[in-house]
Automatic annotation (TrEMBL):
GO terms, molecular function: dipeptidase activity; para-aminobenzoyl-glutamate hydrolase activity
Signal peptide extent: 1-27
SUPFAM superfamilies named among the record's database cross-references: Bacterial exopeptidase dimerisation domain, Zn-dependent exopeptidases
PANTHER family documented for this protein: PEPTIDASE M20 (PTHR30575), XAA-ARG DIPEPTIDASE (PTHR30575:SF0)
Residue ranges occupied by any Peptidase M20 dimerisation domain in the UniProt entry: 217-309
Protein name from the UniProt record: Amidohydrolase
Annotated Gene Ontology cellular component terms: cytoplasm
GO BP terms in the entry: folic acid catabolic process
Keywords, comma-separated and alphabetical: Hydrolase, Signal
InterPro entries (UniProt xref): Amidohydrolase, Aminobenzoyl-glu_utiliz_pB, Bact_exopeptidase_dim_dom, Peptidase_M20, Peptidase_M20/M20A_hydrolases, Peptidase_M20_dimer
Amino acid sequence: MKKSNFRLALMSAAVTVSLAVVSQAAAKPLSDADRGQILKNVDADAPQISDAALKIWGFAEVGYQEVKSSAVLQQQLKAAGFDVKSGVAGMPTAFIGSFKNGPGPVVAILAEFDALPGLAQTASPVKTPIAGQIAGHGCGHNLFGAASVGAAVAIKEWMVKNNVKGELRLYGSPAEEGGSGKVYLVRAGLFNDVDAALHWHPGNENTAVQGVSMANISGKFRFHGRSSHAAGAPEKGRSALDGVEVMDVATNFLREHTPDKTRIHYVITSGGGAPNVVPDFAEVYYYVRHPDPAVVRDVWDRVHKAADGAALATGTTVDMEITGGVYALLPNDTLGRVMDANLRRVGGISWTPEEVAFGKKLQESMPGQQPSVDSVKSVVPYKVEMEGGGGSTDVSDISWTTPTVGLSTATFVPGSAGHSWQNVAAAGSSIGIKGAVNAAKTLALTGADLFANPDVIKKAKAELDTRRGPNFTYKAMLGDRPPALDYRKSGAGGQ
């Protein structure tokens, strides 16, 4: 994407949208009876939401290895009458569940279910790792997938009872944490006919604020050298680890000369097995982020040159594999206002005394002063934010190709950090389940609003065209590579 296109998108998004096509939310809201029926549908399905969420929490499967997690969600959709196609876009754990009731809007709901390496933790407010387990749901994707399926089932039941026309899809998207699963779905054209996409994410508060994220490219640099005895014959060796370390030094000096808001981070995922053996292989896993995808591509090329220079300096060779890459999230105010109105209808979350005690105990492990646990009872005021967004998400690529809207609910304890053991504990508790049910209700009401009011979709599409600028053509940040199905075999990290 050209820089001028991205700047135009930011300028369009930063200004309050004044066009008539996006100045109003739903023109013909659902009746109270419709809303009541949908909420009852979610409540009736809450035990299944809980069952799926806790099973997936226990499986704790990392990106592209979510075989059991994917199967649980697919089975629930099949039991509810959805047609399910698995293994889509070259990803064995990806799937699409579809319910079609004649011609009409195509509304999609996104579902994630991958865990993060290194965060195995019991559902306890005291740090208690699970022995032998390599991963945990520190981003709450066990809740994400389960609640999205619950919302889809509730909408489908409402559509059947009221003969609502259109198609509802549930996209099971694996490997959000660094594997960019949704990018392959977009690249394969599986969103080309989708009119609107809905998603949510576990969080510390209840909010339908529409914000931005950072574009990124991630990948692994693999250095190859020559082994030798580090003391007996050092002159015969060429250390692959030296190549990694020289690259890291060069990249760290590069930071001074990159555009503002650039983020570069890395971990050494392989560096040898013994100090007295010159390592003939070493690997370093890099991320480059910036709000502008064009800047990300430019900085990534410079990091790649640092790797080439390091290989030249150390007498080694290097190859690079891009494992992920996503756009910056593009907000949609039209859909955001509909989502916010429904979140306020659902309201905040009430904790039991036992849950309050759990939350306060968990907060003792967090540094500094923490927000009151009572904040989960409220909903954050709505707005569109064009600053911030330090993380990244593969939802972003969908947001540049179809109008997309999301929300977050309080599934974690206020003050807890993303990708933390505290989040794993909450995601496996009743606190996480309550937040997931709230999300399912909000998604279901919003999806029903879109089926009932196609004019809202038209307005959202007009806004998307304005925000992304003229002559936009989608091109995946990760190029034409196939899904990196083995990217979790070494290394760690998330979006």
